[in-house]
Amino acid sequence: MNNNPLLQPYNTAPFSKIENKHFLPAISKLIAETKSEIDAITSNSEAPTFKNTVEALENTGEKLERATSIFFNLNSAETNDEIQKIAQEISPMLTEFSNDMLLNEALFERLKTVYNQKDSLNLSEEQQMLLDKKYKAFSRNGANLSEEKKKELRKIDAELSKLKLTFGENVLAETNKFELHLTDKKYLSGLPEGVIEAAAQTAEEKEKKGWVFTLDYPSYVPFVTYADNRELRKKMAIAFGAKGFHNDALDNQQNVLQIANLRHKRANLLGYKSHAHFVLEERMAETPEKVKSFLNELLGKAKPAAQKEFDELTAFAKELDGIDRLEKWDGAYYSEKLKQKLFNLDDEKLKPYFELKNVINGVFTVAEKLYGLHFEEVQNIDKYHADVKTYEVKDDEGELVAIFYADFHPRAGKRNGAWMTSYKPQQIKDGINDRPHISIVCNFTKPTASKPSLLTFNEVTTLFHEFGHALHGMLANTHYPSLSGTSVYWDFVELPSQILENWCYEKETLELFATHYKTGEVIPMEYVEKIKDSATFLEGMATLRQLSFGMLDMAWHGSDPSGIKDVKAFEVAAFDDTQLYPDVKENCMSTSFSHIFQGGYSAGYYSYKWAEVLDADAFALFKQEGIFNKKVADRFKGFVLSQGGTMDPMELYIKFRGQKPDPEALLKRAGLL
Ligand SMILES: [Zn+2]
């Protein structure tokens, strides 16, 4: 224990000293330590104050936080069987610890005493936010309820977690149950070579001849996008849309109804009108009414464009293949064909202009031009894998802003996708501004013996996206770690990331870094134009689709669902305004809508579009004043990137922009106006 590196003082994470055997004892010890820190607060004989209760609570568990962030970041980026096994032990320990804390009545009583005096305490806006956040963590978990109602709440929570689990298991089982087994080569017409190879491999794994396609995205999506055989596309699409809707043991209709009703009951118990009212209390959008009018406003503007695109696509399909009525299984296929015809732009043409090394320098240059940040690669920081790059980030005065880790390429032990995370939060404590340690992890194309790492354009925007989150973390400048950096409302957190993607489409930016890896030639303007145009291709239809999901989500969670008996009929009604394709009677979206019935997106699906409105409207100001305009950048840094969750996000946004976000900017960017 004495030489456990996670229990010694450290600044940057001591990766090279940590062995797997250190995690469990360190984290158990740190949980116990945090518990005593909390006991010290509750047993304080002095009357509760902001300092001895709220701030004291904020300061508990600092070492625990750091050790768990190291552990879980490794479990995502550099895991193995042993780490996964340890996670199975650590996760329940942490859940139990946080549940116990939220049920700690003595602690809640002290918080409540301070909370009830909040208007007379002369707190700064940031302190008020902290108090509010701490108090609500308890009250939203039932701390104010009578014993009897608390019991009822626990019962609902237990039932809900079981139902959500079952819902997810059913979707998974339905996904795995179906396969399209083909043995005749003629049915593969239209499919790219790589897709066919993968299907042959799947067949081999299942000890079958020929090719097997499944409902997993990497198999399903290319199939319906490229397969020329319409009947087979139909078969796949119907199977995909019927998950959990077969009136058998794996059917999810009753689960959907029960989840919606239990959530509603839970919200009522806590004093909210609906589940959406409960969720949105802690979102920038605030209320279901605001979300609904937001979605409806976009719908009104996007629908004519979507209808026009749909008619064009229908005409294209008719001209090409004599199709009279465009069905759901035709959408992806003819969209792709039309896109090829209009743009003829593929990744292979673009990739030579996006060598990873250049793109990294590009994103650093953007950060320098906007925010005066300087990145210097350093070799003296401990890392968890030789591929990880480490940087010191300094401002114009040479002061340290952050430590930045970047981990770019896939390897066994790293999960898919790309994400930003942190190893140490920023905070100002005892007058010292402690700077954060931020990391991004990606899975970009690896270099080969003959070629450096060349990125697809999609990978380029992904890097800018994650780097945008990283800037939010690096430029944080707040007192309390729980309000610092990306610790903001869910529907606000994608603003810093999505806005940065906009720079990738600008000539001024591309000229900085998009040069051919062999010839050094700057990317041709013709390509840049095509990238821009193809980015908004069929955007009206895509918008309508996103809106339809958001509306279905709000229909389930925005009012009392106890009168709903028929899941499919309810869904058809909720989709009424947003459908372009004929309904498919065998299909139901809700029974496999894992985002809202299993994951954390209930009453939150709108946030995808919400964040787009924010980033388009915010970027419009940069476009107007110049994309590297220092004044606009200073305001974005001052009011958004540095403020974290210390203020209401709408207030912050208005301070930056001078007005509320206007959806028109998004519609314009998407070419829908
Ligand atoms: Zn993001």
Percent in helix: 55-70%
Strand content: 5-15%
| Mean pLDDT over all positions | 96
The main pleated sheet reads as: 5 strands, mixed
Bound molecules: zinc ion
Overall morphology? globular
Characterization of this structure:
It is built from 27 helices and nine strands. The chain has helices at residues 23-42, 50-58, 62-77, 81-102, 105-116, 125-139, 147-177, 193-205, 217-226, 230-241, 253-269, 275-280, 288-321, 328-343, 347-350, 356-371, 457-474, 495-501, 507-513, 525-535, 539-557, 567-574, 594-597, 607-625, 630-641, 649-657, 664-669; strands spanning 180-182, 211-213, 374-377, 389-394, 400-407, 419-424, 427-429, 432-434, 437-441. The strands form three sheets. It has a five-stranded mixed beta sheet. A two-stranded antiparallel sheet has the order 1-2. It has a two-stranded antiparallel sheet with strand order 7-8. 40% of the residues are buried. It binds zinc ion. Zinc ion is lined by residues 465, 469, 494, 497.
Characteristics:
673 residues; alpha+beta; five-stranded mixed sheet; two-stranded antiparallel ribbon; 9 strands; globular; binds zinc ion
Q: How would the blueprint of this fold be written?
A:
Layout: H1 23-42, H2 50-58, H3 62-77, H4 81-102, H5 105-116, H6 125-139, H7 147-177, E1 180-182, H8 193-205, E2 211-213, H9 217-226, H10 230-241, H11 253-269, H12 275-280, H13 288-321, H14 328-343, H15 347-350, H16 356-371, E3 374-377, E4 389-394, E5 400-407, E6 419-424, E7 427-429, E8 432-434, E9 437-441, H17 457-474, H18 495-501, H19 507-513, H20 525-535, H21 539-557, H22 567-574, H23 594-597, H24 607-625, H25 630-641, H26 649-657, H27 664-669
Parallel strand pairs: 5-9
Antiparallel strand pairs: 1-2, 3-4, 4-5, 6-9, 7-8
This protein binds zinc ion (ZN).
The site of zinc ion has 4 residues, from helix 17.
